[in-house]
Amino acid sequence: MWFCWLFNRKAPSGFSASSTAEQVTEGIDGSALTAVVTGATSGVGVETARVLALRGVHVVMGVRNMAAAGNVKAAIVKEIPTAKVDAMELDLSSMASVKKFASNFKSSGLPLNILINNAGVIANKFMLSKDNIELNFATNYLGHFLLTDLLLETMKKTTIKSKREGRIVNVSSDGHRISYRGGIRFDKLNDPSGYNNMLAYCQSKLANVLHANELARRLKDDGVNITANSLHPGVVATNIFRPNNKIVNDLAKMFVRPFIKNVQQGAATTCYVALHPEVEGISGAYFVNSNISEASGQARDVDLANKLWDFTRNLVNSSP
Question: Is the distance from CB of 53 to CB of 84 less than 8 angstroms?
Answer without folding.
Answer: yes
